[in-house]
Amino acid sequence: MTDMKSDVVEHFRATLRGPLLQPGDPDYDGARSIWNAMIERRPAFIARCSGTADVLAAVAFARNHGLPLAVRGGGHNIAGNALCDDGLVIDLSAMRAVRVDPEARIARAGGGATLRDFDHETQAYGLATPTGINSTTGLAGLTLGGGFGWLSRTLGLTVDNLVGAEIVTADGRRRHIGPDREPDLFWAIRGGGGNFGVVTEFEFALHPVGPEVTAGLVVFPFAEAREVLRRYRDLVHGLPDEVSIWAVLRRAPPLPFLPPEVHGEPIVALAAFSPLAPDAALPLVTPLRGFGQVLGEHVGAVPYEAWQQAFDPLLAPGARNYWKSHNFTALSDDAIDAVLRYAATLPTPHCEIFLGLIGGRANEPLPADTAYPHRDVLYAMNVHGRWLAPEDDALVVNWAREFFGTVAPFAAGSVYINFLTQDEGARIRDAYGGNYDRLVQVKRQYDPDNLFRFNHNILPDG
Q1: Comparing 1-10, 215-224, 267-276, which segment has the lowest mean pLDDT?
Q2: Rounded CA separation 319/354 (Å)
């Protein structure tokens, strides 16, 4: 553990409005617990920041004392980058305020806000911006990696709707950035991860969405998955931007609209979403019912805020998680067969494979418009290994890695940075493609000593 004089620590503590936690403090173990239970790290200090002034003090403390520095927003990142051993964690979880200007259609969200925090405040005015699919996700990590979810086909990625930010950089400066204020840095945080500083506030454009949308599931037996996925792939090419349909292969959860005998059995589920009202949206998803034997369905009007939380029980904190991911520009028959081969051998009841449909408005910007470059991607596939017992680590990890290798020849060769695990540093260039060199230049300008390195790290020397 870091050896530091007590008077130095106490002086740092006195500069903070929020608490400074150390090993042995009552709240320490809870503060170092994050969503992925595989991550076990012991920071020397956790600064639970109450505002930007605390962040400024914490960045200076880490820099001046040569401490490893990690930043925690929602603590949801699969790689566990929210924590470091024997260093300082800047914990933003108390900075969760979301302020909405309904006339200007702008929301300002603190760096610790979750998607649920954001949706709760914006939906009070019938407004939203594209985010993710799990309401406990931190808005900061999602945004800094690009951000996609149910609204992305209609309204673009999360970063396409980011219009400004407040960031504390390695030199200890608080900067208000936007398209016309330090535009290179603003470009870099729209997909470049936490490499450039601590974003303490995000400013998003809002759009009329909800309070009710059209959404739900159509569930088929796994025995019919090949036909279902082929017909799904063919349907996707004619979908309007106002409709998104994701495919999920897993064991059936105990959903009330499924017969009890289906619970726990292998299925393929098509999750449909549209911000349109049911009378406009349902005719667009009706063809799904003809894809095979429907075990159960529940599609109709639902509050947007509720749909954003619908998959939370399947992604609750406390489980062990290991992911592998590919992007696809098309879904070939061979790719579908590879998916089905491994979906038939899910190693635990909590594992799943999903194909997240993107395309639409998310593909309209040019690759160089934001640090997130993948503007040709139609599907992001996540091989979601999830389990409870540590003795199953090798079983699930090996399954995920084998699947990843088998399907690689049919994929695009790129990857969504937020889906990378901690052992995939070699894929960082794949995540940024042609934007990597420009990101290195911005990193060199704003963080030449790589203070912010507990992330999918962009090295200042390339």
Answers
A1: 1-10
A2: 18
